[in-house]
Design goal:
Length: 336
């Protein structure tokens, strides 16, 4: 049994984390904190947790969290986690950070997030928490940089092709559609029902902060430079991401060969389900930690389609999957 704290427990991701951890047989939740007016039982904030979690959510108290926890989840905004993570690490705690603060080298972080990194020394220590690619590193890690939701869907969709060496690396297009919870739990005109309902829009094409994250990880996988054009969209659903990734083969390849590449790559991955006969749909992964993938070979392209729940495999579920690996638990515990 390990003791766990969640810092930032009142956002969408924090709520999902608490719900998952509450059903985990090897976890005791000892501390929940957030920016909050007064101490409040978490089940009063999120009634679906009544009878499952009886922990008061309070303003952050470092000493309380550090003294009572084995691992701390930071479900905080970007540019905030870097102020918390080094203190917990120095106290000998394991940290799983769900923000972007430890996903990129410091120079890229400053370029894409508009702030110099306050804890650059720990960036090199952080392990990118995508278990399907970095499981052995995650096992030994003290600091996990939990992947972004868009990068999770895009990287898993195309990783087998990149690793096979069979596609051009300078002409990849990733087109992703996300539900509105991907924008976080905050007041914004863009997120009002009247703006989102019956609407569908693109944003930050070629300029989204998740694009360099995709490039860095796929470059690591390929062993050389990778170029991606990323086009994100918001669709009027609550949760889920569908990513369509377009690649060009170096030489002619047929559907059977591509199916084998994917089947072999993910054959031992419980949370990735490759569909050789159909293309995946968001409804099949909503409220789960699964990533479903389908691929089609056309005359000039290989097109991969992936779907995930942005709050689970794209955030909280993957964070718990990483925790399970770090502590030697069954990787599926709390997630199925």
């Amino acid at each position: 049994m390990i003791k766990v704290s969640v810092v930032g427990a009142t956002g969408y991701t924090g709520e999902e984390l608490v719900a998952i951890l509450a059903s985990h047989k090897d976890v005791k939740i000892v501390s929940l904190s957030a920016i909050i007016d007064k101490p409040t039982n978490i089940s009063d904030l999120f009634p679906r947790l009544k009878g499952r979690v009886d922990v008061v959510c309070k303003s952050f108290d470092f000493n309380e969290a550090a003294s009572s926890s084995d691992v701390i989840f930071l479900a905080l905004p970007h540019r905030v986690s870097m102020d918390f993570a080094p203190k917990f690490l120095n106290a000998g705690k394991k940290v799983i950070d769900l923000s972007a603060d430890y996903r990129l080298p410091s120079d890229l972080y400053e370029k894409w997030y508009g702030k110099g990194h306050a804890d650059a020394k720990n960036i090199a220590k952080a392990v990118y928490g995508l278990p399907e690619l970095f499981r052995s590193e995650i096992k030994k890690a003290d600091l996990i940089a939990n992947p972004g939701c868009y990068p999770t869907s895009v990287i898993l969709a195309v990783a087998p092709l990149i690793k096979s060496g069979g596609v051009q690396l300078d002409n990849i297009i990733a087109d992703s559609k996300s539900g509105i919870t991907g924008a976080g739990r905050k007041a914004s005109i863009d997120l009002l029902f009247g703006e989102i309902a019956d609407n569908f829009k693109a944003y930050k094409i070629g300029a989204h902060q998740h694009m360099p994250e995709m490039i860095e990880i796929l470059k690591n996988l390929a062993g050389r430079d990778v170029d991606i054009l990323f086009a994100p969209h918001v669709i009027p659903i609550k949760r889920g991401i569908l990513s369509t990734v377009y690649t060009k083969p170096i030489k002619k390849i047929d559907q059977k060969e591509v199916n084998k590449i994917y089947s072999d790559f993910y054959k031992n991955e419980f949370f990735v389900r490759f569909k050789s006969d159909t293309l995946p749909e968001i409804k099949d992964v909503a409220y789960t930690n699964f990533c479903d993938i389908g691929v089609r070979v056309t005359d000039k392209n290989i097109v991969a389609v992936s779907v995930i729940d942005n709050l689970l495999k794209g955030a909280a579920g993957q964070a718990v999957q990483n925790m399970n690996i770090m502590f030697g638990f069954d990787e599926k515990e709390g997630l199925v």
